[in-house]
# Entry
Amino acid sequence: MPDKDKEKKQGTNISRRNFLKGVGTGTVAATVAPSVLIGSEKAAEAQTEEAVASATIQLNINGKPYQVEVEARTTLLTVLRDGIDTSGTNIDLTGAKLICDRGECGGCTVMIDGKTVYACMMLAMDAQDKQITTVEGLADGDDLHPVQEAFVQHDALMCGFCTPGFVVSSAALLSENTKPTLEDIKVGLSGNTCRCGTYPFIFDAVKTASRKM
Amino acid sequence: MASWGEASESRLIGKRIPRLSGKDKVTGKAKYTFDINRPGMLYGRILRSEVAHANVVDLDLSEAEAMPGVKAVLPLVEVGRKIRYQGQEIAAVAAETDDIARDAIRRIRVDLEELPSVVTEADAMAENAPQIREDWVGNQSAPNVREEGDINAGFEQAAVEVEATYHAPVQTHVCLETHGHVAEWEDDENLTVWASTQGVFGVRNDLAGRFNLPANQVRVITEHMGGGFGSKFGPGVEGRTAADLARTTGRPVKLMLTRKAEHLVAGNRPSMTQHVRAGATSDGRIIAYDMKGYGTGGISSGAGFQAPYVYHVPNVRAERRNVTVNVGNQRAMRAPGHPQGAFAMDSLMDELAEKLGMNPLEFRRINDPSEVRQAQYTLGAQEIGWHRRNSVPGSGTSVKKHGIGVGSGQWGGGGGDGTQARVTINADGTVEAVTGTQDIGTGIRTAIAIIVAEELGLNPTDITVKVGDSGPGLPSGGSGGSQTTASVAPVIKTAAAAAKQKLFQRVAPQLEAPVEDLRVGNRTIYVVSDRTKTIKWELATGQLGMESISEGGHWDRELRQGGVAGTQFAEVEIDTETGAISVIKIVAVQDCGLAINRLTTESQINGGVIMGLGQALLEERFMDAQTGRMLNANLEDYKVPGTFEIPEIKSIVFDTHRKVTGVGEPPCIPTPGAIANAVYNAIGVRIRSLPITPDKILTALAEKKA
Ligand code: FES
Ligand code: FES
# Structure
């Protein structure tokens, strides 16, 4: 979007440029739109505004096909969590979480054709014709994936909000490297963040799971 | 007298038991507030000020209101009022999708007349600083002064003195599930709210008050929640707004804070700056302590910290002030005031010991009145290999240098009265335990199951535990101050014991034995004096027919105790060329009283240590003085520990008695001090300001050389 347009769409009655000029010179009609965009906030800003044409796409999630109507800007994560299938059912796969909204925390990690991606950073349209696996798709019915079992056994979770992301990343790591060292595990899970501090037991769990796989 | 019995008699209590919610959490089934999806639900968003200080001149919601998909727009500030910090609420929107809600808040027009702001302590205290609070001269509160003994006399006895300034910046909670609610009205009189909260009943009572409803017409549910660390008590503006939007639209509304708002307005740990002068006698006693300090808790107050800390100092003068700035307010954060106070005190201890030519551990032994910590020093020193530390800090010629340090902490965690609970035994043999506490990730749900199962001779998985719901009307306090387990456990135990007693009374005639002779174990009730007389659990409960047994409990003080001591030892490695710091190992010796579940207790200790490590090495809120805005209100510039930062952590559950105590907070206290002292031991230069970053290390090393 060209810059000019964006200024208009801030929904304020002065342009950003005027705002910048005005700051600090007494009474100005200021705007709540950021006067300075910092770092990757730009990306977040650009993501918004002006819904564009929508389209109905098909997504294969955990081995099941879903038809959903999405906009160009709709992320895969939004579809998983809030999407409604054209048959009217909520997809409701809420295991993947939105935590940072910008590819920094791994809370939204899912697998696309076996590789981990941040679902908050992928557009739903780009996930067509691929196999999407979420944390809900890892267990085989009541049989937990070895990673899931080991997470429970080792208490590799506290509040558990980060846990689905860690479980998916760990499963992906073990599918590529069945005997990871501690260093491999740290690298493999470096895209995930846990605030409760469950890391030590996560490392133990991944080691235990690797022995079972 | 009630007791938890001897360790040898416990089948479950004190063992390592995986948490009951584990399976739901690893499969993605666990539903957090953020995951609640109600039929017809709308999405709420809040427009917040980007300006730190301003008058609201005009607010026009009409354009947003006119957007397709927008169902309600509510003002959250009045024209003519002031904005006092970045992130302050201006208006809220409810719309059919989250994307529409986000578009809509950008169509709200607000005119702000910007006022001069101050967002750093230094700017706030500067001469001619704009006064942002009329009642505080120079943007500072009146000092809070504590005096003990006679510091002048104390300094006269001192053989050595240290004078230093220690600083810890503001840290934010970074709950991974942001603050948020889903509000749904059944009619105008009945409200259900899913809340990401540490206090189900607190939220209920607040909202009932706001809407003038009888408390039992508001139901608050927190089945799972993604972290609070002290910041999630009460519904806050966002919770009340969610309920307002739901009422206005007649539809359920989900309103979660954005990550940015979470940093800006959902609380933080206040900063601390202290100038200390302290003296010690030649035989190693701290004798005088004179401290002037301040901190900021944002636009309001609350920037207290502990000074002096844990060690015995006979002559004290400690003066603290709050500094107010145009930034979102502090909230309690894991052991409020303690980790920063401990960092300063433990740094000071090492500086005094060095002046005396004493081993810092010996110096602590002389000055620490806690018998528990005395024992912990011995154990921790062995575990870390204290003898391996640099006898001359900073010595050696290698590029990578190792150091070892120690720090201490103290906490309460003895719980309180006020929890109601019910343990029910049904005719089909199932057992249910219900109370209004909430599991904020600490594992109280599992602890409850363990206690009931131990009492009734069952397994924890046999017990259905219902927490996090005000619906059953069994109140419990908020999960703060590490009080939950010690508040809840005694009530659950006495309720389970009462239920068991009732069941025994039922079957005693059949077993031809007095009730006192009955025991239960392994799903069987038996007579202790004649073990051939037994009745299977299901057969016993089967006789209850339609009447379940349902008993309450009481808070038996004898079952809990407050006051926990902790000590941590840290080993670090520092690359003197890059300034990179890696923590190699932390030994955390944590007084835990009776740990109901050793596994989840170890998780708590690990978690505390890791949060303390973040405070020591990574975390700092950066404010831009020019724009009044936070520069790192996200997760890439505000660093919390990730996998690479995690050292080997040896969490030692140090049980000193068989009474229940909470340990959610204390393990984060000693970590920054222990790491700071280890850094000094490695490089021989002291970093007195947190976080200890590579640039500070390199600067300090360069200054030492010069
Ligand atoms: S929410 Fe996607 S990486 Fe953080
Ligand atoms: S378990 Fe709470 S954030 Fe990881």
Summary: Confidence is low (pLDDT under 50) at residues 1-47 of chain A. The pocket of FE2/S2 (inorganic) cluster (ligand 1) is lined by residues A 98-101, 103-108, 118, 120 (CB under 6 Å). Chain A is about 35% helix and 15% strand. Strands of chain A lie at 54-61, 64-71, 109-112, 115-118, 131-133.
